[in-house]
Write a structure and sequence with these properties.
The chain is an alpha+beta fold. It has helices at about 10-30, 35, 85-100, 115-125, and strands at about 1-5, 45-55, 55-65, 70-80, 105-110, 130, 140-150. It has a domain at about 1-105: Gcn5-related N-acetyltransferase (GNAT) (Aminopeptidase, 3-Layer(aba) Sandwich). It is globular.
Length: about 150
């Protein structure tokens, strides 16, 4: 059974989950990943959701303010052994709900063009591709997406 908790980026289970996330991204993108790492710092993220399967941390995601109306989805990850069970969708939905409760109107995110599972997840959740924003403008391997949440 999967349970979700709301916490922040100081939670040790969150740190334990982003270690394999970073390893996966490094394996996919190699040296190019160094560019993205600078935008994935987790210190001071106040809104983190962690998924547990029978008490074991198996997935996570976070949101941080992008602008006055928008939260950016960050650090989405599910342990490979637990993928395909809808956990990522539950985490994403909880993050969107939390953003709405905080008064935000939309969520944006950036994912990589080699992360086909992630792209399918976001499309299934109602995200649509938009022009690359901010630091991702002109980055060919980046895919930016958005979803209205209210």
């Amino acid at each position: 059974m999967v349970t979700l908790i709301k916490t922040d980026s100081t939670h040790p289970d969150f740190h334990g989950l982003i270690i394999p996330l970073d390893k996966e991204l490094q394996a996919l993108y190699g040296e190019e990943q160094a560019f993205f790492d600078q935008f994935n710092k987790v210190n001071m993220i106040r809104h983190v959701v962690i998924a547990y399967n029978d008490g074991r941390p198996v997935g996570c995601g976070a949101i941080k303010e992008f602008d006055a109306d928008t939260m950016e989805v960050k650090r989405m990850f599910v342990d490979r052994r637990f993928r395909g069970q809808g956990i990522a969708l539950q985490v994403l939905s909880a993050l969107e709900q939390w953003a709405g409760e905080l008064g935000y109107k939309r969520c944006v995110l950036e994912t990589g063009n080699k992360q086909k599972e992630a792209i399918r997840l976001y499309e299934k959740a109602g995200y649509r591709v938009i022009a690359n924003y901010g630091q991702y403008v002109g980055v060919a391997s980046s895919i930016c997406m958005e979803k209205p949440i209210r």
